């Protein structure tokens, strides 16, 4: 976007790689995969080059001066060095050069401020693309909108056009511009998906938004980047970029309500569970579901679409077992090939429900007055809940 | 209060010719400008965006009363100027009477503010927790009131001290002038607050 | 030394004869003034700018150690992925207190130590304009510092079960970050730690503003005859600009903290979102203070280096007026760039662009200074004394911090760097590589003047090498950590992020840095105890402080000097006869010295009581509201006694025994 191709600049990475740092790390912004991140990276490299050049010149001049004018044994101690105290021409010249170098940075900076700020099909963004007339997407159709909310200490993602809500993991289609509306629900958080786009804050009482687009399907890692309290470090999220067909499949799957563990539908299951539990099969999954809706008090804060569990304070659990991580990304259950590790998932679900106060100190699932701190659950009951949660997919 | 701050070098070396205490008061007032500037900015920013839940300033304000008390405060500045002039002329008696005028008028203003606060809380239901308007209103005008009260304390102290045998019109004129600077500044700030908080609602 | 060869300006070096010290002086209140006391009484009641400066230095070095230990704990926790050395809450408290301590309790007061010690000496004055106010500033700073740090004691008491706040929260040490973003600092989301932070900072603000008013008046009104503004040492200029920054930057933070206090204590709604409050307002108010604060931390450092480079290059400062002017421009622009701390808050295009360009613009006056420092070295005869080595290290490290600063000014690129370790690397290069290196240079340069002892041995070079190596090993890898996505203020990270190796390197570097600081303290203590006599002018200095004995007598200058040029002592030693330092005929009554006083300390003690009891009131400790009012009463009482005791004073006759 800056008129300098990334390939030509990419050899900058060579000496850096030698320093033993993995620049392909999963949250690296120097390995951009989205158009916004790419532009930001190009601008970053430009600033690196300009400042590195100035540094080489000025630093070189400093070193040379210090070496050249060091005190020598041959110096006559009774004489003084030249007592010059200024030269307006040199001084003004150097100011001029610095200003010129800053202009080199300033022009692409201004361009990119406009470009990243406006949705590409927003007519105003033409201001930003004034330099090369390029826009990300000339399409007139309404973009996909995702409402991203930051909570202490997790993210929720709502797709108002699709009627889907997820917690901590969400998917976007490759090659499409997506508009993300950012909201802070309690304190200030920040939405940072380094490989796709730089961060924008989620501020309570303020409607921020950003847009992202990537052409490369994959599984991307993001994290809250604004200090938001005790468990800030644990507040992460994941983004899956899917090809268009796969995204449609994903949408269809996510809209489906998971099947109840017994009975023909959830209503029947719930009423049986309340009135005639002995008619239900005595399996872990059934018992887990009964605890979930009953003594576990999970439903006060969590939602499972299609059931009466409609709590809003915690992540939507409708397809929680389709996620490759748990506890806002802190507990992972992903195989090296990207598929879900079910054994690990079950273990994580158990650990999370059993020991959340140790895994994520300060979390509301435990510390809320209605939370697990006041609920007695045996290890077996927790295991049953974990088995039930794993069926939600 | 005499010798609020001690100057220790002989004044004949002062390169600016400006008395140390007076210079410091000017600098303090510059700093105080930023202080009130921030408070007033807060109010104006919130005024533009606040949700008007049950808070309608025009119905709360008693603009006649506030206008009258503003006038009283401004008149106290006149007495202050006369007091400074008197002390420079060495007329301690005239200085005292004018200072009494400042103190009475300042106290009247303060009493008006106390009445106003009390009235707002008890009758209009405007408390510090009434939206952001209640917060910015009470904190800003209250901060100004504290400035007035401190000024009164300072001037009352001078009035008392003027009866002390150590009081010397020639020597203390500069201290009175410094206190006067403060007093005038507090008045000027009130003009800005009166405009930005009260009058602006009637535009 | 060379001055003694000129008859007119020979400063007498004998001990003063204090003619009226035989009977105790009484104040207007009839109380005995604590003049001519010794030991701790003398230190508590002193109004001597040199002793006050020394106490600022001692307290700030102590807090430098406290902040350093906090930093080491932070680094130890981050050395390994998924480490559990400290809990999340403790970690948050550590980084909050580390930032607060280093900014407000270490670097600012260390700069203040130099202001206090040097301003009167470099402008040829007897003391600062308001000596008792100066003592008040010192003790109020100490009061605020103790209030904030007492929270650790209450946290410990909580751990033993002796103290529990009424809301049951255990975050008694501030843990919302040194920037205290609302609404995290609101009463819904944080405990009384935030109250300790608010009240401590308010008290510190009073101290800073009072001290700055004092310095401005001193610099404007107390210059020796002939010392025009454009002849002032650059350090004095930077002090003046810094003081102006303080008096204009602290009111916004005072108001912001006040609004937050009203929210927490009296139920106001400034930052309550559900009542229409706007958290973003806090950020604006905080950074309107916070960015000038950055220059408050770095401008004194630039002044120190501008004094040291000419001495060891044996050349005048290159482009004096441009350096002074660029300092003023930095100070002015410093108020116009605050929103670059908020590039990710959705400011909108125009505001982002404006602040982006202004931030780039501020690089120009900063660059001017670097060019001029190199110009000063150019053609000189550079002597690598320890202060010079630190100063050269300063230029180098400060440049590195400055360049990453330019990278941040490009707002879209900053969207990736903001709140990542890239920023942490940037400002530690500026604050350690800039401020701390230069303050260390200043200590190596002026300590001989302050205590009359000279450094000996080579330890100083080892200190500089260890500190610079430690700094780079710790913070250079942080640039890369930021680039590979590590956010700030996270107490741990997953193994899979790939952040572990670099973090381990940083931790090793932090301990190297700590060894450097330890070596420095050792060098400092052994020099004060056993250093050889320094003499009046050990470095072949250029400015007035080197014309008087080391350590300076209580009255500083036996005769007020008359100055005819910039770098007066240098001109005196090496210039034309017409530029020699003259002297004002001494007053036959002797030099007037101010009396010492207990009352500044008393007024400050009131602030201590007020701040601490307000914080404890929030914890629900009974009677604290009354104690707070009593504290305010103590302050008012202190001020009245201070006002009514009269300035007092006595005369010393430095030349009486000399002749």
Explain the layout of strands and helices.
The complex is a heterotrimer of chains A (393), B (203) and C (659).
Chain A: H1 6-9, H2 13-18, H3 35-68, H4 88-117, E1 144-151, E2 154-159, E3 164-167, E4 169-173, E5 178-184, E6 189-193, E7 197-202, E8 208-212, E9 218-224, E10 236-242, H5 244-255, H6 266-275, H7 284-293, E11 325-326, E12 331-332, H8 342-359, H9 364-367, H10 379-390
Helix pairs in contact in A: 3-4, 7-10, 8-10
Chain B: H1 20-49, H2 57-60, H3 63-89, H4 92-124, H5 131-161, H6 169-198
Chain C: E1 17-18, H1 39-45, H2 49-78, H3 88-122, H4 131-159, H5 193-221, H6 234-266, H7 279-313, H8 320-333, H9 349-361, H10 363-377, H11 386-409, H12 411-417, H13 421-451, H14 459-483, H15 500-530, E2 561-562, H16 568-574, E3 582-583, E4 591-593, H17 599-618, H18 624-644, E5 650-653
Antiparallel strand pairs in C: 1-5, 2-3, 4-5
Helix pairs in contact in C: 2-3, 2-4, 2-15, 3-4, 3-5, 3-7, 3-13, 4-5, 4-17, 5-6, 5-17, 6-7, 6-8, 7-10, 7-11, 7-13, 8-10, 10-11, 11-13, 11-14, 13-14, 14-15, 17-18
Question: Could you explain the architecture of this structure?
Answer:
The complex is a heterotrimer of chains A (393), B (203) and C (659). Chain A is of the alpha+beta class and 393 residues long. Chain A has helices spanning 6-9, 13-18, 35-68, 88-117, 244-255, 266-275, 284-293, 342-359, 364-367, 379-390, and strands at 144-151, 154-159, 164-167, 169-173, 178-184, 189-193, 197-202, 208-212, 218-224, 236-242, 325-326, 331-332. Chain A is built from 10 helices and 12 strands. In chain A, the strands form 3 sheets. Chain A has a 5-stranded mixed β-sheet with strand order 3-2-1-5-8. Chain A has a 5-stranded mixed β-sheet with strand order 4-10-9-6-7. Chain A has a two-stranded antiparallel sheet with strand order 11-12. In chain A, a hairpin with a 2-residue loop joins strand 1 and strand 2. The two termini of chain A are 41 Å apart. Chain B is an all-alpha fold. Chain B has one domain: Four Helix Bundle (Hemerythrin (Met), subunit A) (Up-down Bundle). Chain B has 6 helices and no strands. Among the domains of chain C are: 234-380; 383-539, no CATH class. In chain C, 62% of the residues lie in helices and 2% in strands. Chain C contains 18 helices and 5 strands. Mean pLDDT of chain C is 91; it is low at 1-22. Classes of the chains: A alpha+beta (393), B mainly alpha (203), C mainly alpha (659). Chains in contact: A-C, B-C.
């Amino acid at each position: 976007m800056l008129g300098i191709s990334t390939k030509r600049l990419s050899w900058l990475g060579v000496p850096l790689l030698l320093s033993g740092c993995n620049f392909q790390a999963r949250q690296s912004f120097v390995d951009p995969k989205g158009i916004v991140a790419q532009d930001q990276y190009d601008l970053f490299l430009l600033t690196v080059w300009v400042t590195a050049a100035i540094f080489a010149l000025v630093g070189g001049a400093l070193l040379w001066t210090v070496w050249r004018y060091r005190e020598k044994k041959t110096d006559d101690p009774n004489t003084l060095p030249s007592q010059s105290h200024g030269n307006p021409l040199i001084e003004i010249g150097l100011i001029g050069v610095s200003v010129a170098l800053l202009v080199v940075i300033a022009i692409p900076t201004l361009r990119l401020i406009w470009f990243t700020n406006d949705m590409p099909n927003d007519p105003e963004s033409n201001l930003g693309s004034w330099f090369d007339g390029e826009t990300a997407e000339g399409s007139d159709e309404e973009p996909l909108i995702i409402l991203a909310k930051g909570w202490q200490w997790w993210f929720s993602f709502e797709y108002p056009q699709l009627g889907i809500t997820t917690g901590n993991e969400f998917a976007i289609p490759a090659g499409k511009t997506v508009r993300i509306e950012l909201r802070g629900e309690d304190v200030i958080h920040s939405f940072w998906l380094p490989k796709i786009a730089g961060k924008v804050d989620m501020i309570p009482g303020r409607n921020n938004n950003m847009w992202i687009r990537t052409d490369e399907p994959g599984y991307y890692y993001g994290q809250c980047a604004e200090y938001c309290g005790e468990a800030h470090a644990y507040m992460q999220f994941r983004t899956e970029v899917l090809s268009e067909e796969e995204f449609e499949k994903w949408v269809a799957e996510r809209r489906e309500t998971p099947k109840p563990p017994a009975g023909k539908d959830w209503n029947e299951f719930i009423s049986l569970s309340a009135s005639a539990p002995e008619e239900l099969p005595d399996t872990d999954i059934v018992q887990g579901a009964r605890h979930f809706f009953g003594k576990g008090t999970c439903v006060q804060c969590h939602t499972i679409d299609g059931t009466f569990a409609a709590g809003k304070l915690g992540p939507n659990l409708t397809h929680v077992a389709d996620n490759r991580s748990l506890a806002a990304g802190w507990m992972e259950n992903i195989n090296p090939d990207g598929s879900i590790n079910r054994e690990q998932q079950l273990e994580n679900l158990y650990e999370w429900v059993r020991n959340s106060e140790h895994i994520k100190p300060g979390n509301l699932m435990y510390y809320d007055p209605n939370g697990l701190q006041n609920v007695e659950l045996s290890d077996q009951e927790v295991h049953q809940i974990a088995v039930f949660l794993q069926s939600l997919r | 209060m005499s010798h609020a701050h001690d100057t220790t070098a002989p004044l004949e070396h002062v390169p600016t010719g400006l008395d140390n205490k007076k210079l410091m008061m000017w600098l303090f007032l510059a700093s105080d400008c930023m202080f009130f500037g921030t408070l007033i900015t807060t109010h104006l920013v919130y005024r533009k965006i606040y949700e008007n839940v049950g808070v309608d300033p025009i119905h709360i304000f008693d603009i006649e009363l506030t206008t009258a008390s503003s006038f009283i405060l401004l008149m106290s500045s006149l007495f202050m100027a006369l007091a400074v002039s008197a002390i420079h002329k060495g007329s301690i008696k005239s200085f005292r009477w004018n200072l009494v005028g400042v103190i009475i008028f300042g106290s009247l203003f303060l009493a008006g503010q106390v009445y106003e606060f009390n009235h707002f809380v008890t009758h209009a239901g405007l408390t510090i927790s009434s939206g952001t308007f209640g917060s910015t209103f009470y904190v800003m005008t209250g901060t100004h009131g504290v400035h007035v009260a401190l000024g009164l304390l300072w001037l009352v102290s001078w009035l008392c001290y003027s009866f002390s045998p150590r009081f010397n019109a020639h020597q203390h004129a500069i201290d009175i002038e410094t206190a006067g600077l403060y007093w005038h500044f507090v008045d000027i700030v009130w003009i800005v607050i009166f405009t930005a908080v009260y009058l602006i609602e009637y535009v | 030394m060379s001055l003694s060869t000129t008859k007119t300006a020979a400063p007498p070096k004998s001990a003063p004869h204090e003619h009226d010290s035989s009977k105790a002086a009484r104040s207007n209140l009839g109380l005995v003034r604590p003049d001519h006391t010794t030991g701790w009484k003398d230190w508590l009641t002193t109004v001597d700018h040199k002793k006050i400066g020394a106490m600022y230095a001692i307290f700030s070095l102590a807090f430098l150690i406290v902040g350093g230990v906090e930093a080491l704990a932070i680094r130890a926790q981050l050395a390994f992925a998924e480490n559990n050395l400290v809990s999340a809450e403790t970690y948050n408290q550590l980084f909050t207190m580390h930032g607060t301590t280093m900014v407000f309790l270490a670097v600012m007061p260390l700069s203040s130590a130099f202001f206090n010690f040097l301003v009167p000496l470099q402008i040829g004055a007897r003391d600062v304009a308001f000596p008792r106010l100066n003592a008040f500033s010192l003790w109020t700073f100490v009061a605020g510092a103790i209030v904030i740090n007492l929270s650790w004691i209450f946290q410990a008491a909580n751990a033993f079960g002796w103290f529990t706040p009424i809301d049951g929260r255990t975050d008694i040490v501030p843990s919302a970050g040194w920037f205290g973003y609302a609404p995290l600092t609101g009463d819904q989301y944080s405990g009384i730690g935030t109250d300790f932070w608010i009240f401590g900072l308010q008290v510190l603000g009073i101290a800073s503003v009072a001290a700055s008013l004092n310095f401005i008046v001193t610099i404007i009104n107390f210059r020796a005859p002939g010392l025009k503004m454009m002849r002032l040492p650059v350090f004095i200029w930077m002090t003046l600009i810094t003081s102006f920054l303080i008096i204009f930057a602290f009111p916004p933070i005072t108001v912001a903290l006040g609004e937050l206090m009203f929210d927490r204590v009296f139920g106001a709604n400034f930052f309550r979102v559900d009542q229409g409050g706007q958290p973003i307002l806090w950020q604006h108010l905080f950074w309107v203070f916070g960015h000038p604060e950055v220059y408050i931390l770095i401008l004194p450092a630039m002044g120190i280096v501008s004094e040291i480079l000419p001495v060891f290059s044996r050349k005048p400062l290159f482009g004096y007026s441009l350096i002074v002017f660029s300092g003023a421009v930095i100070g002015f622009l410093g108020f116009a760039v605050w929103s670059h701390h908020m590039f990710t808050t959705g400011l909108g295009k125009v505001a982002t662009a404006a602040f982006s360009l202004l931030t780039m613009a501020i690089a120009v006056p900063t660059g001017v200074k670097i060019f001029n420092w190199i110009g000063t070295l150019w053609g000189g005869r550079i002597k690598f004394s320890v202060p010079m080595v630190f100063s050269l290290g300063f230029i180098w490290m400060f440049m590195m911090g400055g360049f990453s600063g330019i990278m941040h000014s490009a707002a879209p690129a900053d969207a990736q760097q903001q709140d990542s370790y890239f920023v942490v690397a940037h400002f530690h290069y500026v604050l350690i590589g800039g401020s701390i290196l230069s303050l260390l240079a200043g200590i190596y340069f002026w300590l001989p003047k302050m205590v009359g002892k000279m450094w000996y041995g080579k330890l100083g070079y080892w200190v500089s090498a260890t500190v610079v190596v430690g700094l780079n090993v710790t913070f250079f890898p942080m640039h890369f950590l930021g680039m590979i996505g590590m956010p700030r203020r996270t107490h741990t990270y997953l193994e899979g992020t790939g952040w572990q190796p670099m973090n381990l390197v940083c931790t090793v570097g932090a301990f190297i840095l700590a060894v450097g600081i330890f070596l420095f303290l050792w060098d400092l203590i052994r020099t004060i105890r056993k250093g050889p006599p320094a003499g009046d002018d050990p470095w072949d200095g250029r400015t007035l402080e080197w014309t008087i004995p080391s350590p300076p007598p209580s009255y500083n200058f036996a005769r007020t000097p008359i100055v005819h040029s910039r770098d007066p002592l240098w001109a005196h030693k090496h210039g034309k006869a017409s530029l020699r330092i003259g002297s004002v005929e001494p007053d036959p009554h002797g030099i007037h010295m101010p009396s010492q006083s207990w009352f500044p300390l008393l007024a400050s003690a009131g602030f201590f009581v007020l701040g601490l009891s307000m914080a404890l009131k929030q914890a629900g400790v009974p009677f604290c509201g009354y104690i707070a009012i009593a504290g305010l009463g103590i302050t008012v009482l202190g001020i009245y006694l201070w006002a009514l005791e009269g300035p007092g004073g006595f005369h010393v006759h430095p030349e009486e025994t000399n002749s």
